[in-house]
Design brief:
DUF4352 domain-containing protein; signal; four-stranded antiparallel β-sheet; elongated; Immunoglobulin-like; alpha+beta; transmembrane; 2 domains; three-stranded antiparallel β-sheet
């Protein structure tokens, strides 16, 4: 008799557990289905209707083509300051080889010659900083829109200087013969703006 009572209680407990588990599982499925339906409805509301292009996107200006079709026209000179330094080109030289003072090497161009620019930079910022000197920071532009970065092989170097002081240094470009820069673009690593100045 006792065994029968225990078995009955055990079966009742198992049945109650199974019913509770199944009820919970079905409730969770209903909740999940309702949540997914709400998300889908929200996406449909946010999606633009057919033919609706949304807010107009401002396009980046496309560089002008030069008259002879060579490429983009060089940027116009806008001023000597990149927000941290004011730049001035003191001299331009064309050489067949360049002796690097800092690394002590003499370099031969992989193109046909080097253009060497002598630059004075004056710190107009609020703290010590280094002017534009590395590839990507100084770009020489020809009139027909060809852009040249400074040479990676040459150890170009400029001192970090305090506000109100100036430094003089050289940057070197490896170029084909006949290359002449119209403007030079300079922007130091931390500079907020870009200086574009006449090359000659």
């Amino acid at each position: 008799m006792e065994t029968r009572l225990v078995l009955t209680a055990l079966i009742s407990a198992i049945v109650a557990l199974a019913v509770g588990f199944l009820g919970g599982w079905f409730s969770y499925q209903a909740y999940l289905s309702a949540s997914l339906s709400d998300i889908a409805a929200g996406i449909e509301e946010d999606a633009p209707e057919a033919g609706d292009q949304g807010e107009p996107v401002e396009e980046e200006p496309v560089a002008e083509e030069s008259g002879d079709g060579v490429g983009a026209v060089a940027p116009e000179a806008t001023g000597p300051s990149d927000g941290l330094f004011e730049y001035e080109i003191d001299g331009t030289d064309t050489v067949d080889a360049y002796k690097d003072e800092f690394c002590g090497e003499t370099h031969q161009p992989s193109g046909e010659r080097f253009i060497v620019l002598e630059i004075t930079a004056t710190n107009i910022g609020d703290g010590a900083s280094m002017p534009a000197v590395d590839p990507g920071e100084v770009t020489g532009w020809t009139e027909d829109g060809r852009a040249f970065e400074t040479s990676w092989d040459v150890c170009s170097f400029a001192d970090e200087i305090n506000p109100g002081t100036s430094t003089r240094y050289e940057v070197v470009f490896d170029v084909p013969k006949g290359t002449e820069f119209a403007v030079v673009q300079l922007s130091g690593y931390e500079a907020p703006d870009v200086a574009v100045i006449a090359a000659g």
